[in-house]
Amino acid sequence: MSDDLDDRAGRDPAPAVTRSIRLLELLAEARRPLNLTEIAGGLGLAKSSTANLCLALEAARMIERGAQGYRLGLRTAELGGAFAAQFNQVREFYDICDASPVLAGELVQIAILDGADALYIARHEGSRSLRIGTPLGSRLPAALSATGRAMLSTLTDAEVTALVGRDAVFPPVTQNSTRDLAGLLSRLVEARERGWALDAEESFPGIVGVAVPLEGWAPGDPQLAIGVGIPVAEATPEHVDAVAAALRDVARQLTNPFSAAARRG
């Protein structure tokens, strides 16, 4: 009897769903169309089984087929937008950024803490339309980006250590990147003291990041952060300070007034 229970526990309850999710992940990771042979190889399935999965996902508009192969469909963008829109801060942040004299022209992004990564879910392009920053749906190690550090700064050092690992070694994305836990904790101390996090060309060469954490509106909401990417040529101390002050003001405006009143009471 126990062997039967073990078999059931280890058995995938919905293999078609699992394979479909993995297929979507393959297309997202490839960042280019994949043909049926490539998808079948990535899934470890026969082409006939893979074709059936593709037909079902294509009918649901989760993927679409073109001359070069399959790619993610419009429905995935709709679902991504719906995910971001469920957070009150995201729904309001575009108008608030537009109304800010400092941030109206800046690239402003919102990220969510997903494990040890910062996942970018919203983006305000700004009037200058700078082609910088992280595309929506992309992720960076939270240890390296300003938005990631802003979120990590809300945790204790012990919680950060448990999250990333005591022996963590971070990828050298640039020559300025933080490489280990000690370096990360040092930067988090600075972020907590300032009230905002700084990424001095550690996640992208030529870009200085400034970010502050955003409080959740409801119990169980994930940790968010709002940040700005500034070309290094424009990242004077005065401009960085002005952006940081503007972000802190936006964060205050995006704080749930009822939870803030409860804390004051």
From TrEMBL:
The keyword rRNA-binding does not apply. It comes from Microbacterium hominis. GO terms for molecular function: DNA binding; DNA-binding transcription factor activity. Transmembrane segments: none annotated. InterPro entries: GAF-like_dom_sf, HTH_MetabolicPath_Reg, Tscrpt_reg_IclR_C, Tscrpt_reg_IclR_N, WH-like_DNA-bd_sf, WH_DNA-bd_sf. GO terms for biological process: negative regulation of DNA-templated transcription. Keywords: DNA-binding, Transcription, Transcription regulation. It comes from the Bacteria. Pfam families: HTH_IclR, IclR_C. This is IclR family transcriptional regulator. The keyword Isomerase does not apply.
